[in-house]
Amino acid sequence: MSKDAEILDEFTSKEYEHGWTVDLEADEAPKGLNEDIIRFISAKKEEPEWLLEWRLKAFRHWQKMEEPSWAAIKYPKVNFQDIIYYSAPKKQKKLKSLDEVDPELRETFKKLGISLEEQKRLTGVAVDAVIDSVSVATTFKETLAELGIIFCSFSEAVQDHPNLVKKYLGSVVPQNDNYYAALNSAVFSDGSFCYIPKGVHCPMELSTYFRINAANTGQFERTLIVAEEGAYVSYLEGCTAPQRDENQLHAAVVEIYVHADAEVKYSTVQNWYPGDKNGKGGIYNFVTKRGICAGDHAKLSWTQVETGSAVTWKYPSCILKGDYSVGEFYSVAVTNNYQQADTGTKMIHLGKGSKSRIVSKGISAGFSQNSYRGLVQVHKRSENVRNFSQCDSLLLGDKCGAHTFPYIEVDNSTAQVEHEATTSKIGEDQIFYCNQRGIDTEAAVALIVNGYAKEVLNKLPMEFAVEAQKLLALTLEGSVG
Amino acid sequence: MTEVLERLLQKPEDNSFSSVREQASLLIKEKGLPDKKNEEYKYTPISRILEKSFANYTGNKQSQLDVLRTKIPGLSMAQMVFVNGQFSEELSHCPCPIGMEVSTLEDKNYSASVEANADEYALLNASNLNGGTIITFKKGAVIEPLIAIVHITDSSKNQAVAYPRVVIRAEENAQASVVELFTGYGDAASFTNAVTEISCANRSMLTYIKIGNENDNQLHVGNTNVDVAGNAVFTSITANFGGQMVRNNLRIALHESYSEAHLFGLYMPDNKEHIDNHTVVDHQMPNCESNELYKGILNGSSTGVFNGKIFVQQDAQKTNAFQSNKNILLSDNAAINTKPQLEIWADDVKCSHGCTTGKLDNEQLFYLKSRGIDESSAKVLLVTAFANEVLEQIKDEKVRVYVQNLLHKKIEG
What we know:
The structure holds 2 protein chains of 2 kinds. By secondary structure, chain A is an alpha/beta fold. Chain A contains 12 helices and 20 strands. Chain A has 2 domains: 3-82, no CATH class; 103-426, no CATH class. Chain B is an alpha/beta fold. In chain B, strands 2-1-5-8-10-12-14-16-18-20 form a 10-stranded mixed sheet, with helices on one face. In chain B, strands 3, 4, 6, 7, 9, 11, 13, 15, 17 and 19 form a 10-stranded mixed sheet that branches.
């Protein structure tokens, strides 16, 4: 009997004990979470036994953990037993032409300046053969394969490169790291895996966009990026187009392992459905993102533009273990209406001469709350550490809030750590100056906000930056006046 | 933890504060002393140390005032002296200036406010409330001399615990300065749990200086709560030069328009000392201003903690709030945990905070050395200059010189 069959066997016999049946042929697991569901997910995905064990261990940790309540966010408690933890990727209904797409969505696309072809792809309109995105993706895949770069879905990686996955999975974010990471480790559905071999400079921006089958990775996404010695990769996640999803809870995990002299640049644009103007609905985005600069002179850079989600809870972090390693964090978080964002970073300095830089720009409008929460930690043996943090907040309207919670822990006298933060609103003189030159107030706010966020937007890949700029303006639409 | 709490809660005797004491002790028993999991006390495990040092505590012993009189420097300049939390008439000499009134809490029918969300140690103080002093600066009075209060915790015979409570009220248009000096005598462990309540009425100007010069067997938790009314200006200067573990909670509420608060702080722990400053400036009304500057010089294997919160409530438009925290680590084993925190719910504000941590600038040291100043003198020079930005805020020369002497002793020792 093969291992998989063994698992299935064990699983089916076990479930009988509890008087609970699952049709293995079913596309969906029943609601709720228990060990059987995890066995079901694992069996469905034909995973090796060690991975099942790994998931179960995470689940057992999760059961003992409590939902964190320290963040400055308020939301009704999530009922974890009311979630379907596995459903087969649904085939999107193919539309014949763009005319069938929701006009509101098309209007948004137009404002974002997304090309017609891309619009079709995003909305699921059948794309004509010549510029089939799939074929584009295939060409890319070939180029990457020539260089030895592995870029595939997580499930594929588990099948094709089990040793790599086994080695690095959980090496940066252990199963018991935090409540949501433990949940993700237990039930993660799919995600991306990326491996850059020694000395390879990845010639293009790797983006989930180009990866086929990536469209529906589900609510518990898991990403693992490994850069071997001297490798370089720039990785892009998300897109500016608004994303609607029926799953309310998203708990993703991103792990990045950077070896000596390697560099990873990770950019995110997050635009999940933020709920309506009254704060109804919207997605809860509870993400654990962490990378380790394991070798000397390694570099990891996070850039994020957060505009969506009803609740965001996200702290992309860098463990700077290697000597002279570098961590960077650039963030723009925009909240409007009743959105809440509690986001920031952690820079853990372990290596000698490690450097980090934090630039966080928060923009709050409407009734939203926007918090920066960060940690800069310098350990005793890490000499000559340098950190600079800047977190600015911009308030549009008198009903919103901006908060800063920086933790700075320095255990070594040679460290030079600086932190500065400001909070203010857009000056009336600035608006007046624009008005005077024929720019209406809304456009003026967009202009000023973009100038304010420029330092971060500049770090995004070029075509992305253009879209992100428009996205900022769009998110803040209607917040003036 | 509950065991030490029982020991620290004195048996309530019948006095005019019985109901407050009872209320507070119920609350503190329910909440318990804060442990490491309490975000406010994350870096300051004072409850744990209390537990260790006061496991056998049975009550204070009578002090020998004559000994204290000769042993505590600077006592002669004090108007009011408290020994182990109790006002000592023998050691005090209060020729009250005109416009100032000193009375006991009982005389004024004082009732301590006991709130469930208060700091645990403030509740502990209220549970042991047994007298205290109210100083009132009368309407329009301008008091020239600085009013000095000295608190001595005497642990020469046995472990000692003190719960001093001082209430300072500045009435309308009054102007005055008060200094509170906390010091100790004796080798056994001692714990000072002080509460100071300050209120500044309209257009008053009050300067409050808190100096901590405690031994390395002394634990200290001080809660200072300040209410500032319209157009009033409150200035606080906190200087700490030691103690096994010191925690200062300073909470300032600007609850009427056009009020101002200026906060300055200096902390200089050495050896294994630990000094923690938590400040809160709560802007509740429009057009208020606050300025905060805290500086730390850390030597030996000492730890410093700074947590500065600025709240700007929704009504507090046109607020200016600035905060800065600067630290110098003189030794490789010293550590600093700092958390400058802004929470802002109003939009028409100008707020900023900054914080830096580093060692002495090598270039500055080199500059001085190249001019023939030896390394240790150069260091003293730079550290003094760094500290003086805070100390020169003390306008009274006697106190400033006293504090500068403490500083020099600390650097050279």
